[in-house]
Structures are given as C-alpha cells and as structure tokens.
Amino acid sequence: MREPVKDKGRLEHIISAINNVLEYTNGISHDEMLANKILCHAVAYNVQIVGEAVYRLSTEFKENHNETPWRDVVGMRHILVHDYYTVDLEVLWNVVQEDLPPFKQLIETFLSEFEEEKD
Questions:
Q1: Of 2, 14, 41, 100, which residue is most buried, by most CB within 10 angstroms?
Q2: Is 13 an annotated catalytic residue?
C-alpha cells in the first residue's frame, strides 16, 4: 500500500497548481482568458487541484492555521467539480487575479514551517 501524502506534500501540490495558473495567465487580459476555452479549462482544473489538496490537508493542520479561508477554497473546488455548469468565469478570473497570489504566499509560509522543523 502506498504511503499517504502528508500535509507538506499537499502544500507542495497547492503551490504547483497555483504556479500553473499564474504561468498560464501571465500577460493574459480578462477578455483573452474568457475567450479561450482551453485556458479557462486549464485554469479551472488547477483551481480544482488547489481545492482538493486543501480538502485533504489534515484537520489538525487546518485547525493550527485557522486564520486561513480553507472553507472558501474547498467551496470553490466543490463548485468546479459538482456544479461545473454554473461556473461563473468572472469569479474564476477574480480568483486568479485577487485570491491566488496572496494564497500562494500564505502556503509558502506554511511550507517554510516544515523546513524550520527539520533544523
């Protein structure tokens, strides 16, 4: 049986998915993104990964970092997965522009805590 991915691995998945989104949308305007179906799907998929990785973080980790909007992130994942037909691309654009960059910084801070534990 495979060893389950631990919280550090989940955080690394989050960073990877956010980096994908930021790379895909770098220099892309609002209208360009909304007009590009493949780009919208790629962005939505990676935002789903962020939400899924957050969902799978341990309860203990999330409770120790309860200032983080975990429920909002998981809620977005649920919309993208279960209510895919109601996804508002304006909301997705706002998530990319406003929410992901500071969330990435926060996750990087959490990852640094794992490095500090090793020292």
A1: 14
A2: no
pLDDT confidence bin for 42, thresholds 50/70/90: very high
Rounded CA-CA distance 25/48 in Å is 16
Task: Confirm whether 77 is a catalytic residue.
Answer: yes
- Rounded Cα distance, 14 and 88, in Å: 22
Percent of the chain scored above 70 by pLDDT?
92
Q: Is 58 helix (H, G, I), strand (E, B) or coil?
A: coil
Q: What is the largest CA-CA distance in the chain?
A: 48
pLDDT band at 81 (very low <50, low <70, confident <90, very high): confident
Q: Where are the domains of the chain?
A: 7-113
Break the chain down into helix, strand, coil percent, rounded to 5: 80, 0, 20
